[in-house]
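Internal ticket #5521
Category: modeling
Description: The requester needs a full-assembly model to guide mutagenesis choices. All entity lines are attached below as received. Residue total reported by intake: 837.
Assigned to: D.W.
Attached entities:
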Amino acid sequence: MTEEKKPEERKKRKTATEAASKIGPIVKATIGGTVRAREEGKPIAYSFICCCYDEIIRTMDIVPVWTENYAGVCGAKRDAQRFLERAEAENFSRSLCTYALCGLGFDAWREELGEMPPESPWGGQARPDMMLGSGQILCDPRNKWFQAAQRYMPDVPVYDVGLPWPPYEDDYDYREVQGYYVKYIVEELKGLVQFLEKHTGRKMDWDRLSELVDLADRTWNLIWETYELRRAVPTPMGTGDAMNTMVPIVFMMGTQEAYDFFKELNDELKHKIANKEGVIPDEKYRLIWGGGLPSWFALTDFNYFNSKGAVFPVETTYRMVEAIYNFDIDLSKITDPLEHIAWRWVKFWTYWYDRAKKRPGSHPDVERLIQYIEDYKIDGIVMHEAFSCRSWHVGLIWQLNLLKKVYRDIPSLILESDIVDISSYNEADTKARIDAFIDTLEAVKSKGR
Amino acid sequence: MPEEAAGRGLAAADRYYQDYGSRARELKRQGKKILGYLCAFVPVEIITAAGFVPFRIKGDVNEPITKADTEMETIVCPLVRSCFDISLKGNYEFLDGIVIPHACDSICRTYDVWKYSLHLPYSHFINMPHGTGKPSLDFYQAVLGTFRTSLSRFAGREISDRELTQAIKLYNQNRAKVRELYGLRKASPPLISGTEVARVLIAAMSIPVEESIKMLGDVIEEVRQRGGVPARKSARIMVVGAQVDSVAFIELIENSGAWVVADDLCPGAREFFSDVTVTADPIEGIAERYLRKVKCGRTYREMKGNYEEYLEDRFGHMSRMIEDFKVDGVVLYIYKYCDPFGFEVPQIKSYIESKGTPVLYLEDEYSMSTIGRLRTRIQAFLELLGSK
């Protein structure tokens, strides 16, 4: 029986920062908290990260269950296979998003049993009262997953928030269309508030929402400033740790805890920089994690890079903020909280557009890579292609090709595996590819000497 | 005249199908501009109104994907990869531009790859929303307004409401012809095979709408007049899936002893069974049709009523077709890496089965190399139907 398979025990990964080492317990406590919240009758919503509704659900004291997070936890604990297999038995293709498959397999099993599946990681995923999907340009599973989950929970309503952003085009400036994008997002968020009010019986406290929106703005700025500290040589924090510190960014936004976490991390990094304390004592190669979600079951690969003298001072993945004060509009003047959220969203996704227009043939995604390569003194790029996710893992090859064309040739490596499905991972092969990449980096460095 | 070279009716369809793009190539030589597009969610009415010829890019199941892998990840839906591969190989060298809609991740996340790799004079992304509520409809109208402006710039002239209305009427006529053609499949045995219908519809994607109307009319007349009684076969099958732009799979079913009499496919019933309402502002009618009337997994239909009513809203058109076309069994034919349809498989399958019609679910890779495996599954399914 696949349901009796036990996860492979894993050693705890070594982090460079104290702050990152605190994340595991935080996530465990949060997931445990959702299970308790269910028992206490608090309203629970299945939620996706980066969907503009963080401050809204926090204001209304709705408990989010971050379904992608739970799948990631199952993956990290190497205990996702039984849920993936369960989904497959339900006729979901194994080629679909494995976050979703893990979640759907879990839901199908929990609903069948009427209780959590045996030995569910960290107590299990609580049954929701509502599910908040999202229609974006980003990810089909965000509007298909919860719809599919209704097969197991037909009584649980779904609200799907439309959250598009203007595309990057040659023949018009995004500012020509941004107004109707913002208007649409505001309408969608208004609809969400009505939906939540209807299903919780609670009223939105608009003043409180404005406070949390302001708190989120300040947190965005603080995160950006904190991550910019990683430019230091040696860098005090790498992408391995950032795969932990993404938790306050995407699962805790709009809370004081997220702000306080980054204040503490900021202090810690400044202290490390003052003491010239890097991720590793002798940095040889500075790399960017230039695209793709990590394999949650193989985060120790970052330590393997470290053992070869390579560090990751910067990544594009989960750096879902820009400094608000760098936007081309003054967000503080937009006092309506929903409008404020909508403008922040549109300005985030279009942030690199102007820069791309200045370099013939370039593209915003590539401009972002170029900026980070220069700011963080990068020697090489590593990306990860997760087979089950088209959202973040399509266009990586093309970006590297374009980077070479409009900027310069820089050593690159695309690792191939998945976010959750460990059967796609080959540790020996991955290490061999990393070794070969390190050889390339060394050869390039030697030429430059 | 195109029909002199291509013949008429089924012969013309066969010729356009076999030499896909030949008519567009001729028109290009005559000075027309050809805009390629992916998926049924590009409002071809606007392209036609602007004076361009819309040309649906299709893949090739017989051609191994080789060149695409240098720019596009293998985790993209194999149909899109095949389309891109043969575009890179120069099959559609006549294109002046490309229009890509927010259809699915495999299509929309590769927009930049297409745009930067093909280097065409024109490109445009239609940012269609997922939702169907009033805010989504208003937003989509604005998006189509941007498309209209963008095309006007490329055309160097305004696109008038009158031209849009004319185009709408033409495409509605075209759709009416397809529905008339489908009517010939209701007879038992059907007057036209599923393979023939698929060939006609695929051919129609590659020619101007006026010529498509004419070709469909000729096909209908030819089929009505042709002599002989079609062979009796064991079962009447409906195929449900995404874009099936080769006759290979339909032919496989029919060569296994069944008729394919109905579908929910592109090209197929999904895109031809709903018209654009002629409205004072033509963009309004176009937006309404593409967002709300075309029922596809890529669009999120908000839940109204209880769960059973929701399934009825999303899949009821399939069960009506099963009844209208006296379907014995449904083949759910889904490509690997297809998120919009992949997530719907359990719901579609159980919904149709709950109405008493057996369903065979097949996942495929858009390649002739899988035909042998599929044949075995289909033969077993047909045997199952025969034993009922």
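Resolution: model delivered.
Comment from assignee: Chain A touches chain B through 63 residues (CB under 8 Å).
Ticket closed.
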